[in-house]
## 1
Amino acid sequence: MSNQMIQQKPINKHGKNVAIIAYFTIIGWIIALLMFGQKPTRLAAFHLRQSLGLFLTGVVLSFIPLIGWILVIPLLVLWLIGLIQACEGEAKPLPMVGNFYQQTLRYVI
């Protein structure tokens, strides 16, 4: 999706709804991606990348005994921060991992 096709401002309700839905399980993420395809916005793209990054990190951590399972707790905190930011219509990267997710997943969404 080219940057020219993605709406810039103002943050509309559709983009905010997509951003919020993206944080609710992988099924919610897929639904949000389909909604994003109908009317792409920068806010929605940002949160789709953040939530996908969190999901993929959680999958990787689940395969690491003990240490990975313990690290899931801070991941849940990051998930909550991302969800709150989506609800507020903000596009701030998550602490420690957000910029990495944006750079790594920019070609996916």
## 2
Amino acid sequence: MTTQSKNPMVQSTQDILKKAVKAALERKQKLGQYSVMWKENKIVTQGEDAPQTQK
């Protein structure tokens, strides 16, 4: 997300969600699991055991 909200409740919610996603990704990495994300209009997998995505 690149836009910042002026509403403190919205900003707080965004901050909490970012923190939760970061924690979940770190946990998956520690467990040796791969993650799947959406970046630049593409599906991206990260991790040693991540399947190769088809282009």
## 3
Amino acid sequence: MTTAETDKIHSVGFAPRVLALGLSAEAVGENRAAWRPPWSKRLSREGGGPSGRR
């Protein structure tokens, strides 16, 4: 499966609240997938690093 195929499945198979995160597939493997959220100033720490907090 390619990342493009994974993105297509994601766009029709997940709840609206998950789609609102704007995730995109970065890598897929046999039993795993890596998803990347878009960069957001709201979710970044001082210096630009990502943070999981709101």
